[in-house]
Amino acid sequence: MLKFYKREISPLLPSSCRYVPTCSEYSMQAYKRYGVAKGTILTAWRLCRCNPLGI
Hints:
The chain is built from 2 helices and no strands. By secondary structure, it is mostly helical. The chain is globular and about 30 Å long. It has a domain at 19-54. The protein has helices at 2-9, 23-49. Pfam families: YidD. This is Membrane protein insertion efficiency factor YidD.
């Protein structure tokens, strides 16, 4: 699902992630390093912070 997003949806959207690496790249790294359970939690936490109203 993440690869589909990066390949098909991300190029259509303006670059708006305020983090480096981008949230999708961070997510892929988190899944590879920590597995599905912790990777999902870390990704969700990152996405909650990556918005105009985030802390």
